[in-house]
Amino acid sequence: MPHSTVARPGTPEMLPPFPDSLPQAPIQRISLQHLIDREPAAEKDLWDACISHGFFYLDCASCDLGRSMVRAADELEKLSHPAFRLPTEVKQSAAMSKMRTLFGYKGPGNVARDDPHKRRDVGEFWNVSKDDVLGQSENPVLYPSILQEAYPLFEDFMRNAHGVGLLVMELLAGRLGIPPEQLASKHKLQGKSGDHVRLTFGPGDPEEAKMETTRTEAETKITTYAHTDFGSVTLLFNWLGGLQVENRASGVWEWVKPVPGHAICNLGDAMYEFAGGKVSSGKHRVVAAPGAQAAYDRYSVVYFVRPEDDVVLEDLTPGAVPKPEAQRWTAGKWIDERSRQLGNAIKKRADA
Ligand SMILES: O=C(O)CCC(=O)C(=O)O
Ligand SMILES: [Fe+2]
Predict the structure, then answer these.
(1) Fewer CB within 10 Å, N side or C side of the chain?
(2) Closest Cα to atom 1, ligand 1: which residue?
(3) For the CA of 238, the nearest atom of ligand 1
(4) Ligand nearest to the CA of 299
(5) How far, in Å, from the CA of 268 to the mean position of ligand 2?
(6) Domain Fe2OG dioxygenase spans what residues (predicted)?
(7) What is the pLDDT of residues 227-283, one digit of tens each?
(8) What distance in angstroms lies between residue 283's CA and the mean position of ligand 2's atoms?
(9) Strands 243-246 and 253-255: what pairing?
């Protein structure tokens, strides 16, 4: 997959604007500082967002923790440019399919099992494992040196994003009647889990510019296939449009406009299970950025907070009826299975 010749200028201000005419998902903005302060109005907004779309903007400009995450995400975005321009052989030497799980490099060309149009996706990922970065993997991925040399930056971002994920879970636990320490104990930083930083790349394509309102679904190029996130809480930083969330009532794909200084935060399947289905794991995907933005290469920086691999995904709310044994998925197996559905050829775990 050749890279676009249009280099991203590097500063968000220099990018063409997101077209205001497009239907945007009605996602609330919530201040991280207000959540840290446990302000009741912010907690209520969080709850409302989580039981409706399962998505919200997290205003990170409001506190040191948030500003530090924004700075690290900006640095990781810059690192992504050379990391995705490495020769294909170098990237493939750390391919997910060669590794034990979904960590490592994902190239373009996957076809999701359930895509009726059998489109090949155009997106690339570097999935950098928390356990590898923290030096607690038995079998770490041999990432290219450009990524390994940046482990201190990854670690800084991970620790902060993990902390924010735990805060979101603690606040939701309060509403759900789940003892907060029960969720925290299933998402320990030191636990073996699918947590990782994902750097994503989608090639710019000037021919896609302004096609977003006329192209059919079959003509829509997929950067990242429609999916729900597999874990508990996701924090996402992006600079160009392209992210879309499915409106649950109408089935229409609505755009999510990047807002400077804000993370996009969403819940995944594991949180849906823990909450007994009371919160949403919203379906989303990434397509070419809209309008003149389509010509630019698109990068995003994501952190996934997931339950530890051996945690059973089950309803933790008071009075929940335990699932029959045959329907009890551990987080590790759930992540592997969902990853295969999205077209990733990953090996079975030794303990599976
Ligand atoms: O790149 C984005 O904006 C979203 C990425 C995403 O949804 C994912 O990697 O799970
Ligand atoms: Fe996602």
Answers:
(1) C
(2) 300
(3) 3
(4) 1
(5) 8
(6) 205-307
(7) 999 999 999 999 999 999 999 889 999 999 999 999 999 999 999 999 999 999 999
(8) 8
(9) antiparallel
Neighbours of 226 (CB within 10 A): 17
Between the two ends of the chain, the Cα-to-Cα distance in Å is 34
Helices (H), 26-185: 32-36, 40-51, 64-84, 88-93, 130-133, 145-148, 151-176, 180-185
Q: Whose CA is nearest to atom 3 of ligand 1?
A: 243
Ligand 1 site residues, Cβ closer than 6 angstroms: 198, 200, 224, 229, 236, 238, 243, 284, 286, 300, 302
- The residue whose two tokens read 């997959």 is 1
What was the ipTM of the complex prediction? 0.99
341 CA to centre of ligand 1 in angstroms = 16
CA 296–ligand 2 middle distance (angstroms) = 21
Q: Cα angle vertex 215, ends 209, 218, to 5°? A: 125
Find the helix packing angle between 64-84 and 151-176, rounded to 10°. Answer: 130
CA distance 324 to 312: 12
143 near 92, Cβ under 8 Å? no
